[in-house]
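step: validate -> pass
step: tokenize input -> pass
step: predict -> running
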Amino acid sequence: MEALKLEVLREATKCSYCGFCEWVCPTLRGNRILGPRGRVTVASLMLREGLESKAGIDSVFSCLLCGACLTQCPAGVDIVKIVRFIRSYILLHH
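step: predict -> pass
step: emit ->
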């Protein structure tokens, strides 16, 4: 689990928070935490700092895992992989 956690953190650090992924996200409705960039931020904060909130957890579980964001990311961040891992991490640690 620890090796996978480090791999996901490395993936998250590739994100430059440019926001190109946001326009295709079907769950982003004015609240940026409900988009791909917000989910990467939530995952990073949970894994690095142990910070979590109801809003952050709701954000991660609102993702449809559709992969639309993957086609728009210029850095090639695998946001779906990050979301899948952080969901498992949340469920295992609660």
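step: describe -> The chain has a mean pLDDT of 93.
step: cleanup -> pass
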